[in-house]
Amino acid sequence: MSSPTAPVTASPILQSQPLGPLWPTLDPFLFCAHHDDAYPAGNAERGPAVPLEGRQIGSDFSRKDGWSMYHGDVVPGFPGHPHRGFETVTLVRKGLIDHADSLGAAARFGGGDVQWVTAGRGIQHSEMFPLLDTTQPNPLELFQIWLNLPAQSKMVAPHFTMLWRESIPRLVHRDDAGRATTVTVVAGALPGAGAPLPPPPESWAAQANGDVAIWTLKLEPGARWTLPAAAGAGTRRMLYFFAGASLRIGEAEQRSHAALEVVAGQDWLLENTGADTVECLLLQGRPIGEPVAQYGPFVMNTQQEIMQAMQDYRRTQFGGWPWESSDPVHGSEARRFARYPGAAQDELPDDRPEAPAAA
C-alpha cells in the first residue's frame, strides 16, 4: 500500500553509488562504515599473535592480510578520542568490542548487540577490538553509523545506551514458498516486529516526525518480502545491498553491491534472485535540513561552533579520562556486560553466535 501523499513512481531507485570503505549517506545520517576484519588468533595482550611489520602502527587502515590495526598499537581499534554534536550507533555482527568513556561507562558487547552514544556537548570514548581467542581466528564485523543532531540538541548532556541482541525486535517473514526474510529493527517501527526500542531521549530518532529507521535485512535464496513505505512525508531512505549476488527491487534488478536511494513513500517488493543469501542495511529518516560543519570528530552547524568545540576540548577534555590508558580492555573473559554512569550494570551470557541475523 502506497503512502496517500506520495505519487506512484515507476522505478524504485533514485540513485545508485558503489560501496567503498565509507558508504555514502543521506541527511540525517553523516557517516556509515562497514568494518569486516579477519583478525588472527590473539596473544597474551589480546592483540594479533603475528608480526606487525609493514603496518603504519597508530594509523593502520591497510587491510593487509584482511585486517587493520586502525589507531591501536597493541590491540586493534580506536583509543580514546572526542566527539561533539552527533550520535554514534554501532551494530556488531561478529566479535566483541570494548567500550570505555569519559562518563565512566564501560561495556563489552558483540554478536548482534548495538551501542548508541549521544555525544551531545562532548564525550570521549574508546572502541577497542580485543582478540580473546588465542588458538583460533577472531573475526570482527560491524557497522558504525553517525546520526546527526539538530542544532537545538547539539549541546545536550551525553548519553550512553546499550541495546542487547536479546531485546532487539525482529520480524521473520515467510513467503508463500516458505522462504524467510529476517528484519532486525534497531530503530523505527515495523509492523509485525513487536514494540520498537526507545532511542536515546535527545536523538533525532526520538522525535515523532524524525521517521528514523535502522534495519538489517537478510533474505534467503528466492525469498520475497515487501518493504513497507515510510510513514513520513519527506523521508529519505538508503538501502545498502552488501551481501549476495542479486536483488530485485520492484522491477529493478541489482547485480552489484551498492548504496541505493530508494523511493521512500511506496511499498517495494524485494526478491533475492540469486543462489546466495542477500543482506542489506537500511538507513531512513526525515532530513534535519540544517547546515553541517564538520572537523574530524566534531559536527556542528557553523565553523565558529567548530572552533568553540576545539577550544572547549582543549580546556575541559570533555570531562577528562578516568582510565589508566587510552586503550582500555576489559579482561580475557568472553563476557558481555555494561557498566553505566553510576552503579547500574548489565551482565549477559555470551554464546558466541556465528554472524547472527541481529545485525
TrEMBL record:
Coiled coil (residue ranges): none
Domain Pirin N-terminal: 72-147
Domain Pirin C-terminal, chain residue ranges per copy: 215-319
Entry annotated with the keyword Acyltransferase: no
Highest taxon listed in the record's lineage: Bacteria
Binding, Fe cation: 81, 83, 125, 127
A GO term for molecular function: metal ion binding
Details of cofactor binding: Binds 1 Fe cation per subunit.
Compositional bias annotation for Basic and acidic residues: 350-359
Keywords, alphabetical: Iron, Metal-binding
Entry cofactors: Fe cation
Keyword Metal-binding: yes
Chain intervals for the UniProt region annotation (Disordered): 324-359
InterPro entries according to UniProt: Pirin (IPR012093), Pirin_C_dom (IPR008778), Pirin_N_dom (IPR003829), RmlC-like_jellyroll (IPR014710), RmlC_Cupin_sf (IPR011051)
SUPFAM superfamilies: RmlC-like cupins
Protein family per UniProt: Belongs to the pirin family.
Protein name per Swiss-Prot or TrEMBL: Pirin family protein
Species per Swiss-Prot/TrEMBL record: Simplicispira hankyongi
